[in-house]
Amino acid sequence: MKIHSFNVQPNLPENIKFLEELANDMWFTWNWQAILLFVQVDPKLWTSAKRNPKWFLGCVPQKRFEELSKDEKFVHDLNQVKEAYYNYKNNQHTWYKEHRHENGNLLTAYFSMEYGIGEGLPIYSGGLGMLAGDHMKSASDLDMPIIGVGLFYKQGYVQQVLNREGWQNEEYPDNDWAHMPVERVTKDGKEITVDIPLGNETVKACIWRVPVGRTSLYLLDTNLQENTPAQRAITEKLYGGDRENRIRQEVVLGIGGVKALSAMGIRPTVYHINEGHSAFLLFQRIIDIMKEKNLSFAQAREIVWATSVFTTHTPVIAGNEHFDPALVRKYMDFYAREMGISWDEFLALGKEKADSATYCMTVVALRLSAFCNGVAKLHGKVSREMWHNLWPGLPVSEVPITSITNGIHSASWISHELNELYRKYLFNNNQRGEVDPSDEKIWAKISDIPDAELWNVHTIRKNKLIDMVRGRLKRQLTRQGFDVMSVKKASKVLRPDTLTIGFARRFATYKRATLLFKDLNRLDKIVNNPQRPVQFVFAGKAHPADTAGKEFIKMIVGLTQNDPRFKGKIVFVEDYNMNTARYMVQGVDVWLNNPIRPMEASGTSGMKAALNGALALSILDGWWDEVGPCDFGWSIGGAENYKSDAERDTVESEAMYNLIEQDIAPAYYAKENGSEYSLPWLSLMKESIKHIAPVFNTNRMVKEYYERFYVPANNYGLILNEPGKAEAVAAWRRRIAENWYRVSVTDITPQPETAILMGDKVHFKARVVLGALTPEEIQVELYLGQRGTLGDIVKEDAIDMTCTGKDGDAYLYEVSMSPLNSGRQDYALRILPFNNDIPNVLTPLFIRWEE
Ligand SMILES: *Cc1c(COP(=O)(O)O)cnc(C)c1O
To answer: What residue ranges carry the coiled-coil annotation (predicted)?
Structure first.
């Protein structure tokens, strides 16, 4: 059966027609005046339409619009929002306009499997999507030229529904484009589609555009009549289907994404691969460049590598996409042939080691991107260790994976009540989109906020959280068929004057949601302490296939419903999503984070809570590890290693109980003579906001990507696109590869045992054999440091040596330096390739140490 449809649009009176424009731009999601405008239209309907303005406007009765168009206050408010929106769109003094310094015109295409921008666009699952969404929003606020590319899922979001026993079931609400802020991309009045070779089929995808303030997100969709049912199902579910559907999704995202940009006439200069899912884009880019510039695979690869950015997001092995090589061959053989490389060569790009059994998307991205990073300092270090196999012979500290720490889009996560305070005391009355949260000076003024006002706002948010929890619980218990008494009791859970600790996470094992429940007697004493009681709010979903995670949820829900010690004092909120998250991070006193170190690459929910005045109680992991020792939050344990998981859990849960009992609760309840709040607690809140807010936000993060990655990638792209440049670099690399076996370094003086007086200059000399290579093509480094335990040397400095002449078939290299410290100094000599036209010489790796 062929089904046709048409779309009936609300008919808004002229003077409030702007509502429609507002509903079609995700800008509203981080502008409270805009959200409050929708709320004014119809508060109840706004909630039942899931805060999705497009859908919402379609449900509002025409009569109400007529009313509003005659309501002076509403029209006035609307005009203010309209002005703010146009000012935002037309601002000529944005951060980017005033700070840009790349050559030519930068345009970054950011590829991600998921985006968490707003509830009305449910194409996200968890932290990765939130980060991508916040990246886009800061790109818009800074006016950074970044566009997003993703997939349009029919079911982009798993809803968690608990049964009576606390067992998680899932529902997949359908996304309907008619209710979403999306429009089909057209050219000359015709909808643009792209053809994507997929094994022995070709699949068609159309493109949806989502306006996100000053930038756009483009989403590919295979749900087209022209496609077979199996093809239409490719973009059916986010992370849905089997391994085969996953690889088909990744072909559509990566290959299809590049084709879609070409079809729209968009020519990015830099590509940012946000997690390995989209790494196939590298191949389509190589194919396009080979054709366009008439280059070989090796030549085109140089350009693609130098202009690609890759961010890895997890040290969990299973979180790094691995495919069976046979499956990869089914879909990628065509592309290998297009590139003119053998299947073995293609496969080798995705194998961590020559004998690896799987093809790993992270490995492909690391091999073919010159700019790679982890998402926090500690995660950078862990990633360098984790992927060291790709650079054997290179000291682990030099593995070219750096770190850029994640952040959050501040304006999206600050409660609007607190925002009003910030606006008054910190933001000079400016709206948030125009305030740069990465400016430290702003946050230094936090002490200007009167304690009572800050506490008042915090209390308002806490009450809202409690109301939300009670309302949800009532609905949930009713649905589950509990008796009237139980439902009634739900209106009494939690108390506003009790210290409240929040925990909301995916129920992945490493996040240890059940750690708090390790010793129930101990927990009982904490929760039911007569002077200093503590209550907990939990939320989180398990992956639909994760039975162990579901058992955790069931256990916690069971305790909250059946154990008299915890009933009404520990609650579990169903269906953790952006909205639940907002209530929680804006209303709790303390945010608990207890993963197994160092598995939490960064974590961002703690940043959201901190910005709203909640204090951190966290394992030293991810972003919290780099806050460093501080007196405005609490760290559980240190960086110690444990003999077993059981030992770790015991020690760390102990430490957590002790902190809550002996430090946190006493500080929270240190209220002097009838005061409503504790002065020491308020000063902790302010210190925490002051230190965390300016650093852990996506404005700082996107600027860092700009300075450290986008600008150099863009500039190297310009160089390599000059006529003959890519050919020259590829020829150089080939010469290096062919001759490297002959390269060696010998006869180094002085010998390490020679004694030298402090202050003396030491003169180093070595003979270097290069075969057919010339000194211009290599660099010789004096590598200074301390002998490590693994027969390696821990780098302190590397100094370039100068070629001073030739002796037979060898070159002489020399350098002088004065040691800065006394004591034993170790050094080694090494040879690396040298080329000024590329971002780094470490990928692929050629390195020769003295044998
Ligand atoms: C912030 C957020 C996350 C990520 O939080 P983590 O600290 O990385 O676990 C996940 N889901 C939602 C709904 C969020 O708002």
So the answer is: none
Residues 6+ apart with CB under 8 A from 413: 582, 585, 586, 607, 608, 611, 612
Residue 406 has a pLDDT of 98
Angstrom distance (rounded) from CA 145 to CA 180: 24
Return all residues near 340 (Cβ < 8 A) that are at least 6 apart.
Answer: 290, 296, 297
Amino acid at 513: A
pLDDT the model gives residue 349 = 98
Specify the pLDDT at position 792: 76
Looking at residue 11, the DSSP 8-state letter turns out to be -
Q: Strand pairing partners for 619?
A: 636
Residues 6+ apart with CB under 8 A from 364: 276, 279, 280, 282, 349, 350
Give the separation between CA 579 and CA 124, rounded to whole angstroms.
Answer: 13
Q: In what order do the strands lie in the sheet with 744-749?
A: 744-749, 762-769, 810-817, 802-807
**C-alpha of residue 470 to centroid of ligand 1, in Å:** 22
Atom 4 (ligand 1) nearest CA: 127
Measured from the Cα of 127, ligand 1's closest atom is: 4
The number of the ligand 1 atom at minimal distance from the alpha carbon of 506 is 9
Predicted pLDDT at 753:
63
How far is Cα 577 from Cα 116, in angstroms, rounded to an integer?
Answer: 10
Whether 660 contacts 503, CB under 8 Å: no
Choose among 549, 651, 555, 544: nearest CA to 594. 651
Q: Domains in the chain, ordered, with CATH? A: 14-90 (no CATH), 103-285+305-407+710-714 (3.40.50.2000), 412-422+437-694 (3.40.50.2000), 738-849 (2.60.40)
Q: How far apart are CA 445 and CA 422, in angstroms?
A: 9
At 394, list the tokens.
């290179």
Ligand 1 site, CB within 6 A: 126-127, 130, 505, 576-578, 581, 603-605, 608
Measure 505 CA to ligand 1 centroid, in angstroms. 7
Alpha carbons 146 and 95: distance in angstroms, whole number = 14
- Ligand 1 mean position, distance from CA 680 (Å): 29
Nearest CA, atom 3, ligand 1: 127
Distance 609 CA to ligand 1 centre (A): 11
Between the CA of 322 and the centroid of ligand 1 the distance, in Å, is 24
State the distance from the centre of ligand 1 to the C-alpha of 126, rounded, in angstroms.
Answer: 6
Q: Which pLDDT does position 786 carry in this prediction?
A: 82
Top mutation candidate among 30, 125, 130, 313 for ligand 1, by most atoms within 8 Å of CB: 130
Residue closest via CA to ligand 1's atom 8 equals 603
Q: Which atom of ligand 1 is nearest to the CA of 505?
A: 9
Mean pLDDT for each consecutive 10-residue tract of the chain (851 residues)? 67 94 96 95 93 92 95 97 95 95 98 95 94 98 98 91 94 87 94 97 98 98 97 94 96 98 98 98 98 98 98 93 98 98 98 96 98 98 97 93 98 95 88 78 95 97 98 95 92 96 92 94 98 97 91 94 95 95 98 95 97 97 93 92 93 97 97 91 98 98 98 98 98 96 90 72 92 95 83 82 93 89 84 96 92 80
Cα–Cα dist 252/233, whole Å: 12
| Cα-to-centroid distance, 459 and ligand 1 (Å) | 23
| pLDDT computed for residue 799 by the predictor | 93
What is the distance in A from the centroid of ligand 1 to the CA of 263? 34
